Amino acid sequence: MTTKIFTTKQIKKAGELIKRGELVAFPTETVYGLGANALDSEAVKKIFFAKGRPSDNPLIVHISDISDLCQIAKISESKKGLVNKVIKKFWPGPLTIILPKTAKVPFETSGGLKTVAIRMPRNKIAIDLIKYSGCPIAAPSANISGKPSGTRFPDVFDDFNGKIAGIIKSKNCEIGLESTVVDLTIKQPVLLRAGGVSFEELKKVMPDLKIVTNPKTKITKSPGMKYKHYSPNAKIILFEFSAKHKISDYAKKLKSDNKKFKIILSRKNNDLAKNLFKIFRQCDKENIEYILIGAVEEKGIGLALMNRIQKASTKIIF
Ligand code: TXA
Ligand code: MG
Predict the structure, then answer these.
(1) Atom of ligand 1 lying closest to residue 119 CA
(2) 140, 171, 178, 199: least CB-packed within 10 angstroms?
(3) Half-sphere exposure (CA, 13 Å, Cβ side) for 127?
(4) Is 115 near ligand 1, meaning CB less than 6 Å away?
């Protein structure tokens, strides 16, 4: 298949491909998405095939207008107040909410679940693509399943050139980590995945919000959490705060063993978030065997950063 590369001035053409049931990768403020018509089960199946993604891992449905929410999700009277408050504060933006799905959303999109994940991105290109497509767009992160998410056009091109109908070529993603996922289907809202909107910000609007994303608790409420994720080929060794002083000795040992390694230390959290997946992919290209990385404080975007790093790590040193 020849993959068409669209400039940001050709979004209308890209939208026509989505309309025809094809796949188009596009930028969002978090990571690039691999999009298809969310209401077309045949189109959605192509996403799972292109990524090599297990079919029970549900997709996020992206909308361009809040008024589209009611065709995708059912909102009970008792939840209306909370849902309105949350989307008024965080949409458009990097927050995904889980709600009961309507019959319009095929089970292919929801991974067989009766609930659906929905997000209104704030990236203008993503919004325009949804508008030109004339339908909500189901999109997981644009990467081969299990590999680091694509945050730059060249990464998406590497993974999908020749496999999908189109890619919109745009700037690097602003945040660099995926959206925050919050389950609103149960009485007490649950944070299923840390991401672009911080836990602290969410707590201001949902004081009873619970966290269950710590990989050590092994909770698999969000189907995607049971799969290995975000991994480069290199072995990642995470040094907790208490062990950061051991990095240099570890590096010396690797050097004497003639191993190729990279050390990631002391950057601003926002900067590391923006570059983490890019660095992982770069390490693969350079055949790096070990990545030694220092823990960051789990505040703001730091919670999502540590979640991604822990999931990718083969060893954690305390
Ligand atoms: O920032 C993002 O969220 C990006 C951009 C493209 O929007 N998308 C993204 O999609 O990261 P994906 O498929 O890589 O991650 C979606 C996560 C998965 O962990 C999935 O299991 C979870 O959301 N999810 C989707 N639908 C769900 C549902 N109904 N219930 C629980 N978890 C759900
Ligand atoms: Mg993903």
Answers:
(1) 7
(2) 171
(3) 13
(4) yes
On average, the pLDDT of the chain sits at 94
What pLDDT was estimated at residue 219? 38
Helix-strand-coil split of the chain, %, nearest 5 = 35, 20, 45
0.85 exceeded by the pTM?
A: yes
Counting atoms of ligand 1 from 1, which one is nearest the CA of 139? 6
State if residue 117 touches ligand 1 by the CB under 6 angstroms criterion: yes
Cβ-based neighbour number of residue 84 at 10 Å: 12
- Count other Cβ atoms within 10 Å, centred on residue 149: 26
DSSP 210: E
- Alpha-carbon distance of 189 to 218, in angstroms, equals 18
- Averaged pLDDT for residues 155-161: 98
Pairing outcome for strands 235-239 and 290-294? parallel
Angstrom distances, CA of residue 37 to CA of 70, 101, 263:
17, 16, 41
Cα 197 to ligand 2 centre (Å):
17
Phi-psi region of 284 (alpha: psi -120 to 50; beta: other; left: phi over 0): alpha
Q: Is the CB of 116 under 6 A from ligand 1?
A: yes
User: What is the position in ligand 1's atom list of the atom closest to the CA of 121?
Assistant: 7
Ligand 1 pocket test target in 72, 120, 137, 141 with most atoms within 8 Å of CB: 141
> Over the stretch 79-121, which tens digit does the pLDDT of each residue have?
999 999 999 999 999 999 999 999 999 999 999 999 999 999 9
Q: Is 292 strand, coil or helix?
A: strand
- What is the whole-number distance in angstroms between the Cα of residue 177 and the centre of ligand 2? 10
Ligand 1 neighbour 59 (Cβ under 6 A): yes
Within 10 A of 302 (CB to CB), how many other CB atoms are there? 19
Give dist(CA 99, CA 186) in Å, integer: 9
Residue-wise pLDDT tens digits, 110-153: 999 999 999 999 999 999 999 999 999 999 999 999 889 999 99
In total, the chain counts a number of residues equal to 318
